[in-house]
Structure formats: C-alpha cells, structure tokens
Amino acid sequence: MQTFNVQGMSCGHCVKAITQAVQAKDPAADVQVDLGAKTVQVQSSLPADAVLEAIKEEGYEVSAA
C-alpha cells in the first residue's frame, strides 16, 4: 500500500477524479481517499512515481507520505 499526501481535495468529485486517474493507468488498483486527512492510499502494481504523475495530471499537489 502506497500513501500520498494530496492538497486541494475537498469533495466527492475530487475522490472520483483521483480514483479514475489512477485506475486509468492500473484498472486493478485499489484507491482509498481520505478527504479529512488529505491522503490517498493506493494498492497497485504501479511504481509510486507513476501514481504521483497520475494524480498531478488531475491538477492536485501531491507528495509521497
């Protein structure tokens, strides 16, 4: 499980956008978004930098936790 700190998430649309962005690169990825903690946990075969890039492409500021 990889954990990322993501700034700018505030609603269900954000959750959907991030989940779809990661799953576009790995359809089997399990994405858990915690809006309150501003974290995203991803279980995926993708390397962390690929997940970071997918989230950045959606316009969010993201870093490895």
TrEMBL record:
Boundaries of every HMA domain copy: 1-63
KW Metal-binding (keyword) present: yes
Parts of the chain that traverse the membrane: none
Keyword Metal-binding attributed: yes
Gene Ontology molecular function, alphabetical: metal ion binding
CDD domains: HMA (cd00371)
Keywords in alphabetical order: Metal-binding
Protein name listed in UniProt: Cation transporter
Organism expressing this protein natively: Pseudomonas viciae
